[in-house]
């Protein structure tokens, strides 16, 4: 019998952890494993906002795939997925085509701009290493330009963050950290720099614990962040944004709008003809697609309903890593024909969000709220545990976050 | 009798050295000394091309004025000179007006664009700290953009340097040094980056020693610099340049044109009604303006004719520093009414130009040609000697160039 071909699309949290687990569990003569990714590195999406602010170098956030994947056991193909043909068990890549017996779709998210005019063209997104690095350089370039131009253009020093979810709030915290250093580098008085958050709801972190949310807002406001809540972004132009609040249209001059208010599943899922719900595959308990016994979906590509609330669980790095355990186990079962497939049960361990400057908030297991240094340390522990799982002690030592006072 | 007011305009090489010398020579009760400068720092113009390439941080190139000027003895006014009214012995500043008994004009150079269309709007110049820092950030931003954009735009990786004089050649050398590091930072294959020099004459460094010039070109070409000589820049657009060579018009796509092909004297001199030659004051032997016994001009604002060749000496940092000795002495003589004023005699010690990457060329005293490490060391000695003169051992230790192998 032919060795089955296992193809994993995407080296995000779910994809790379599945590959790492399979390379440990499977023998080379049992299956051929192929990992496809657009870049030759994996990156921690949850660290990108630090790269985008310039508080952490992007090389700290990315990990060469060959550092954690044993390329004797896993074929690595650096390419971009164009489409999946589940009927033919094929994946079309920009530079080729792959046949699979078992497929794992871990293609991650895309930014959703909800048709807001100008957003796609003029706003920046914290989406990958390239886009995060660009934001950092764009900030620096505008500070340099401000200082260079005779006619001072304050729009160059106004930074607008669209959306007050976890990404937006985390990024505001890093920006508040970064601005004093940026101002020193460019001889700019920091009191004239504005960091502005625009949020549609009446508060940032809507749905999150109100006490912790208030703590976060106070912490950020004390470091100069301005919140405009209950405001809807209407348009993003190269040199300003227009928003509506209380029925009135307002403008803020800015060259830097960072859109952190919406993600959606990768469009390849729906374009490839899978049954989908808002672009995500509503997977079975064993994380397989409803129509195909040989296709798993993971992370942002998988939709899992919380039966208690009848609404979907949020896609988090935590969930994707947990799912990789189930997916790897179930692939083993299919390859070795050992019987039952495991069911995935989410264990929500809670959320910890950094606010920059040695501050953070957390709402972890059993409603334990934390803030300040305790939450900062918890956040670094979570980040470090992931590195340990992914690449062992060596990776942890190279990329871990140890200096809690940085 | 009223204490005379000595006003020094500009804290470039000539101005700041005059101030430093006067604060040593004069007692506080003999005269009031005021130094006016646009920034609260002095900078070494001859190091700016390193800042613009990103091979040296701009803080290494600038020196806070209060670090070398004793502000108990010299009043420092941070302001921009608008005009001089020599008849009324007044200087108009953006935020005030100063009366003088003795004036030193050391306002430096401006870029000359010779009316070439688009150059003023779209090209960059290595003129001051702000413009050099902007070039560095502009390069980084374009490298980030190249990597971010799906449709690859090679114009972002083409860097055009207009002019193959000492500034242009020095900058090409620094760029050749910088590109490998930039490529690593932005994940770009360095073979696709182009550094292109456009020079109107048939060779770079026209008029300089032909052997050393050939050495410089070979050194730079071996590190990937392309020379287009005998070519005239016709237009600079935001995304490309147009030049003419052998009667044909050619285009190079580029977002980064650095114009290093022309300087002229500060326009304030001619606008203030001084008798001038191409914007410079053709000073007497004692460095005073022909029409005014109380006005000295120094550095780029002074024109001094070489009587042997009947053509002007080039304005160099070396000359400005030498002139400051004469100007300071002559101001002393005027204040103390001790008699004769010194005549300035240029001592041309020669030229050493860095080619980056531990290479340089020099043509120093008595036609002694040097290249390679010898010239590199000579260049650093010259730079370090200036710091020693300006601010003593303390300044030399803080800002000097000691690591000859970096």
TrEMBL record, chains A, B:
SUPFAM superfamilies: FAD/NAD(P)-binding domain
Molecular function in Gene Ontology: NAD(P)H dehydrogenase (quinone) activity
Protein name stated in the entry: NADH dehydrogenase-like protein YumB
Pfam family, one: Pyr_redox_2
Keyword Lipoprotein in annotation: no
UniProt domain FAD/NAD(P)-binding: residue ranges: 5-323
BP term (GO), one: aerobic electron transport chain
Gene3D superfamilies, A to Z: 3.50.50.100
Keyword line: FAD, Flavoprotein, Oxidoreductase
Segment forming the signal sequence: none
Protein family (similarity comment): Belongs to the NADH dehydrogenase family.
Domain of life: Bacteria
Cofactors required: FAD
């Amino acid at each position: 019998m032919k060795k089955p071909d296992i193809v994993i699309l995407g080296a995000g949290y779910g994809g790379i952890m599945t590959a790492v687990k399979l390379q440990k569990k499977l023998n080379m003569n049992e299956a051929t494993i192929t990992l496809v990714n657009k870049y030759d590195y994996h990156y921690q999406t949850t660290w990108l906002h630090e790269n985008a602010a310039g508080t952490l170098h992007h090389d700290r956030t990315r990990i060469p795939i060959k550092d954690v994947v044993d390329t004797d056991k896993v074929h690595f193909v650096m390419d971009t997925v164009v489409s999946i043909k589940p009927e033919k068990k094929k994946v079309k890549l920009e530079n080729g085509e792959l046949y699979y017996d078992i497929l794992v779709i871990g293609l991650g998210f895309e930014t959703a701009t909800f048709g807001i005019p100008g957003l796609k063209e003029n706003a920046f997104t914290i989406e990958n290493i390239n886009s995060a690095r660009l934001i950092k350089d764009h900030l620096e370039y505008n500070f340099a330009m401000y200082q260079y131009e005779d006619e001072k253009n304050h729009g160059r020093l106004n930074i607008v963050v669209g959306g007050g979810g976890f990404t937006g709030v985390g990024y505001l915290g890093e920006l508040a950290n970064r601005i004093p250093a940026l101002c020193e580098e460019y001889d700019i008085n920091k009191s004239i720099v504005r960091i502005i958050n625009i949020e549609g709801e009446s508060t940032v972190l809507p749905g999150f614990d109100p006490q912790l949310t208030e703590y976060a807002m106070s912490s950020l406001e004390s470091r100069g962040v301005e919140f405009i809540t209950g405001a809807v972004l209407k348009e993003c132009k190269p040199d300003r944004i227009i928003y509506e609040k209380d029925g009135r249209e307002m403008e803020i001059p800015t060259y830097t709008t960072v859109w952190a208010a919406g993600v959606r599943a990768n469009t390849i899922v729906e374009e490839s003809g899978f049954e989908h719900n808002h672009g995500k595959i509503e997977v079975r308990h064993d994380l397989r697609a409803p129509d195909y016994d040989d296709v798993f979906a993971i992370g942002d590509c998988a939709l899992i309903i919380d039966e208690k609330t009848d609404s979907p669980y949020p896609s988090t790095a935590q969930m994707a890593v947990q799912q990789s355990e189930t997916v790897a186990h179930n692939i083993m079962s299919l390859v070795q024909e050992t019987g039952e497939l495991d069911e995935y049960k989410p264990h929500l361990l809670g959320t910890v969000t950094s606010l920059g400057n040695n501050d953070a908030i957390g709402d972890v297991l059993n409603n334990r709220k934390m803030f300040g240094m305790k939450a900062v340390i918890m956040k670094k522990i979570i980040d470090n545990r992931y590195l340990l799982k992914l690449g062992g002690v060596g990776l942890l030592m190279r990329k871990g976050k140890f200096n809690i006072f940085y």
